[in-house]
């Protein structure tokens, strides 16, 4: 079933290329990478992902045929950090990243997708007409604002819990002392109970 | 004694065309008739017959080719140019893809389709016989022949001809119908090939005979291991194959070192 296993990759590839085709600046960014092959060996995935960049699109596969211009071994969570040059040395030292070949290529590839700037309003206008497109865009913007505010207030609440509550927490030594006092108190109560029973 | 000799001569001079035995020199003409007849509907029929899976087989072939920018690729029996289009995008403007086919009608359909899709600049179209390729020795990094080898009259000669024009270090990929690896699949496949395909051909392309030939020619084509041996005998090294869709199709790969 080798041929069927290609389907998810072809779907993903089509999706990415569709997005790239909707950004007017994509061809310029693709041009910088055209002809390059990047291979990602992600710790969490059971296969290697090969990205081949063409003049106007990218191709995804799990094939390891042929040489790659850049071979990256890393973890899934580390991928977003690759956009910043300053992180590379730290990640390599921490053993979270291993690069063979040109590291700039990986950064350019991440930026290619991350830098997508699509005018969704125009896209919707072309498909649905001006009014529905504006209504949907406004809905999306207000939803986005709401989400941002909600996330800000959640972050504030989490910060409050983490910082303020942490300040009120007893230190380990205080807790140990409290535990000892509690044990002493329990022992005193048991002793008193025994005395009370004897006198009865 | 003379009768026996005559029969041996006849066997040597005849070759399969589907299940029929025909004179060796007639096969090219008969195959040409088949493809002249189906050229216009070739892509539609491919999608219908394989339920679109031929696209996955071809994509898998591309992924296994190790193609890089600047390479020179020969797509033999390239027909309507499915592989050529994908190779052309990958080799970029510095590379070149030669779409070769013995059949003029198929070549024209392929050329028109690729030009309509904007593939210009790095594709050359050559009408060529796979047995006698009109190219210099050691001139291609990759050679592919997809669903074409079974129509070739002298397969060992074609494999040798491809070997000659392949660069040292280059690879040949043969994508071809083969033998299903499970008896159950083989039964279903036989039923489909001999009962459904010709009817589909009649309905869509108004040509049942060509699709009957297709089913027969697949059965007459060497199985996976035989083709592997033939590639070894033609000079290829590290020959291996991978069964696709249960062996209905196999991708053979061999290198010239």
From TrEMBL, chain A:
One of its GO terms (biological process) is ubiquinone biosynthetic process. Its main location: cytoplasm. One of its GO terms (cellular component) is cytoplasm. It is found in: Cytoplasm. Pathway: Cofactor biosynthesis; ubiquinone biosynthesis. Required for ubiquinone (coenzyme Q) biosynthesis. Binds hydrophobic ubiquinone biosynthetic intermediates via its SCP2 domain and is essential for the stability of the Ubi complex. May constitute a docking platform where Ubi enzymes assemble and access their SCP2-bound polyprenyl substrates. Belongs to the UbiJ family. This is Ubiquinone biosynthesis accessory factor UbiJ.
UniProtKB/TrEMBL annotation, chain B:
GO terms for molecular function: 2-methoxy-6-polyprenyl-1,4-benzoquinol methyltransferase activity; demethylmenaquinone methyltransferase activity. It catalyses: a 2-methoxy-6-(all-trans-polyprenyl)benzene-1,4-diol + S-adenosyl-L-methionine = a 5-methoxy-2-methyl-3-(all-trans-polyprenyl)benzene-1,4-diol + S-adenosyl-L-homocysteine + H(+); a 2-demethylmenaquinol + S-adenosyl-L-methionine = a menaquinol + S-adenosyl-L-homocysteine + H(+). SUPFAM superfamilies: S-adenosyl-L-methionine-dependent methyltransferases. The keyword Methyltransferase applies. Methyltransferase required for the conversion of demethylmenaquinol (DMKH2) to menaquinol (MKH2) and the conversion of 2-polyprenyl-6-methoxy-1,4-benzoquinol (DDMQH2) to 2-polyprenyl-3-methyl-6-methoxy-1,4-benzoquinol (DMQH2). One of its GO terms (biological process) is methylation. Keywords: Menaquinone biosynthesis, Methyltransferase, S-adenosyl-L-methionine, Transferase, Ubiquinone biosynthesis. S-adenosyl-L-methionine binds at residues 80, 101, 129-130. It is an enzyme of class 2 (transferase). Pathway: Quinol/quinone metabolism; menaquinone biosynthesis; menaquinol from 1,4-dihydroxy-2-naphthoate: step 2/2; Cofactor biosynthesis; ubiquinone biosynthesis. Belongs to the class I-like SAM-binding methyltransferase superfamily. MenG/UbiE family. NCBIfam families: MenG_MenH_UbiE, PRK00216.1-1, PRK00216.1-3, PRK00216.1-5. Its EC number is 2.1.1.163, 2.1.1.201. Pfam families: Ubie_methyltran. This is Ubiquinone/menaquinone biosynthesis C-methyltransferase UbiE.
